[in-house]
């Protein structure tokens, strides 16, 4: 029983600790999903440099925060043991970054109940921590990312247009506002000529495509039951984080929304310590859906996913 209580408290502490850290970053003006720092010609999602698989969910934000704070020049990460297996070693004195992984356990009282009722015990999900190091902290290895290195200057306008077209999304250009129309399943967007650069257009398209991915016949993403009046803000947060990840995949620096949105998101995160975990997980699901739709998915999708709440 004592162990069960300790496991529960640890799980709650992870939610609280991570949420407080992200809230502090946002309040200080560092929006984790805008990813403003430079890497060595790489604009990609955080990935495990040993397995080649991308991190997902809240781990994307945690590793982006760490990369921004330390000024790392690579998006590749490894555990201490993986660095050794790769023939390298973590430099003395380096501090790792904690990420989380979903796991399950069966409490003793549930084992007893199942035994008495002759049923299978129900496992309880929980988050556990583990530590990774950026490739800049490891000697003797080379970071081989899962995606092609690109700088913004190397991005052809046609590449961005081709990605959007390949998803199959219905985008209708015209007017001066961008929005997704769920009832008719299309995106309305100002014409390309209204944007200063193709990257500016793609940022807006990526945000609206994230909304498009949540349609009932796609990912069926809803937040009404849990978040009530804040469901709209949760959907906006998901779209914002997903758009930032799509921009990272395509080598486009992302930007954040108006300050009013940030204040709404802060309120939601402060009122529910799982909110940012839920938003980040749904954002990664949206990104994977869009990458698959565009024919850009591969087997490196999710390293150490967390999937605790609906």
TrEMBL record:
It comes from the Bacteria. InterPro entries: Antirestriction_ArdC (IPR017113), ArdC_N (IPR013610), MPTase-PolyVal (IPR041459). One of its GO terms (molecular function) is single-stranded DNA binding. Pfam families: ArdcN, MPTase-PolyVal. Residues 159-282 form the Polyvalent protein metallopeptidase domain. Residues 13-133 form the N-terminal domain. This is DUF1738 domain-containing protein.
């Amino acid at each position: 029983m004592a162990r069960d209580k300790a496991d529960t408290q640890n799980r709650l502490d992870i939610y609280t600790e991570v949420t407080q850290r992200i809230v502090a970053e946002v309040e200080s003006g560092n929006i984790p999903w805008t990813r403003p720092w430079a890497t060595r010609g790489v604009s990609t999602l955080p990935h495990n440099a040993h397995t080649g698989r991308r991190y997902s969910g809240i781990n994307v934000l945690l590793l982006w925060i760490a990369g921004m704070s330390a000024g790392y020049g690579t998006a590749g990460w490894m555990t201490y043991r993986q660095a050794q297996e790769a023939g390298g070693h973590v430099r003395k004195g380096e501090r790792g970054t904690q990420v989380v992984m979903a796991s399950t356990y069966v409490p003793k009282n549930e084992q007893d109940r199942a035994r008495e009722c002759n049923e299978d015990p129900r496992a309880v999900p929980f988050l556990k921590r583990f530590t990774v190091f950026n490739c800049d902290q490891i000697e003797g290895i080379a970071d081989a990312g899962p995606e092609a290195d690109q700088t913004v200057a190397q991005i052809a306008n046609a590449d961005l247009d081709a990605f959007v077209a390949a998803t199959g999304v219905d985008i209708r250009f015209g007017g001066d506002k961008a929005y997704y129309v769920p009832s008719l399943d299309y995106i309305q967007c100002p014409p390309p000529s209204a944007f200063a650069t193709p990257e500016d257009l793609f940022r807006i398209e990526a945000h609206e495509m994230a909304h498009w991915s949540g349609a009932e016949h796609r990912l069926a993403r809803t937040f009404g039951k849990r978040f009530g009046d804040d469901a709209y803000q949760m959907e906006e947060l998901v779209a914002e984080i997903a758009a930032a990840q799509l921009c990272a995949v395509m080598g486009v620096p992302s930007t954040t929304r108006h300050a009013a949105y940030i204040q709404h998101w802060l309120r939601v995160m402060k009122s529910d310590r799982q909110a940012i975990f839920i938003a980040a997980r749904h954002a990664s699901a949206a990104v994977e859906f869009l990458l698959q739709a565009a024919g850009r998915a591969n087997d490196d999708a999710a390293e150490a996913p967390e999937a605790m709440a609906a």
